[in-house]
Design a protein that fits this description.
The protein has one domain: 2-Layer Sandwich (BirA Bifunctional Protein, domain 2). The chain is elongated and about 90 Å long. Helix content is about 40%, strand content about 15%. A five-stranded antiparallel beta sheet has the order 1-3-7-4-2, with helices on both faces. Strands 5-6 form a two-stranded antiparallel ribbon. With about 280 residues, it is an alpha+beta fold. Helix 1 crosses helix 6 (about 235-270). The chain is built from seven helices and seven strands.
Length: about 280
């Protein structure tokens, strides 16, 4: 899965059955370019805690496994999930209830469409979409439930399941060092009266998506994300791979600077001339 990714700011390990609203019940030019690029990246990392949290909402088509992921009911959890923080997660309904709700919504939409003599109902696999929403630390489940209602009003979608995740983010040496607080809002996208697919190009157009970004920023009290941003949110595996690559480049940068400093010291001991220093640089 791919979807837009923007970072937002950072007990005992629990296990057992997940419960609603409470996580778990009792989870040489190349080097010059590298130096230039990752010096900036290092500054970004060092100043990240000072950044203002920006809002973001992004949609992706999902399958019914998303219900288990949202409620943390997967048999095998992703490596990007730190279970010691799963107790801080919140969700309104579990995966079984969400699946029953989804099936019932599709059944009703299909029956209503047939009664009206309309053409074939949309394929079921195309009717489950999910909104990923960036959050701040203080946001609670009720904040996202209210936001879901506003999105419903704007799009005609029906909310199936809402979850807040606070157990994912950037890791180092196996430890979570920066949390990515976000919400998953699962939507059924057929109009309940006509069975019409509401997630289609002419309905979910650029104007509508821009308005939804504005609604999210206002509702959550966050700074509006950049208009027309080309940034892409990464899936769990892609995100972890990118962060690993960034750490490797930062380590290369550190070693490069160390090597340069050592060479400077050697030149100093040899009473080097200015041209020799210039050659080093």
């Amino acid at each position: 899965m791919s979807f837009e990714y923007e970072l937002e700011d950072e007990f005992e390990k629990n296990s057992g059955t997940p419960t609603p609203k409470g996580g778990f019940k009792t989870s040489k030019n190349d080097y010059e370019n590298t130096t230039n690029n990752f010096a900036g990246e290092k500054n970004k990392l060092n100043s990240s805690s000072k950044k203002v949290a920006k809002s973001s909402i992004n949609f992706q088509k999902v399958n019914i496994h998303a219900f288990k992921h949202n409620a943390r009911e997967e048999e095998k959890k992703a490596n990007t999930i730190f279970e010691e923080y799963t107790k801080d997660n919140e969700f309104d309904i579990g995966s079984k209830e969400a699946l029953i709700k989804f099936n019932e919504m599709y059944k009703i939409a299909k029956e209503n469409r047939l009664e009206k003599g309309l053409n074939k109902t949309a394929d079921k696999k195309n009717t489950l979409w999910e909104a990923i929403v960036n959050l701040k630390t203080e946001h609670k489940l009720n904040d996202v439930l209210e936001l879901a209602k506003k999105i419903e009003k704007e799009t005609g979608f029906q909310t199936i399941q809402v979850a807040i995740h606070k157990d994912e983010g950037q890791e180092k040496d196996g430890k979570l060092i920066r949390k990515n607080h976000h919400a998953h809002i699962s939507f059924f996208t057929l109009d309940k009266e006509t069975g019409q697919q509401m997630y289609r190009r002419e309905h979910m157009n650029r104007t509508k998506l821009i308005k939804l970004q504005d609604i999210v920023a206002e509702h959550l009290g966050m700074e509006r994300g950049e208009h027309g941003s080309k940034a892409k949110r990464l899936g769990h595996k892609e995100y972890k791979a990118v962060m690993k690559e960034k750490e490797e480049y930062l380590e290369k940068l550190r070693l490069l600077k160390l090597a340069i400093n050592n060479q400077r010291e050697e030149l100093k001991e040899q009473k080097a001339t200015r041209p020799e220093y210039a050659k080093l640089e």
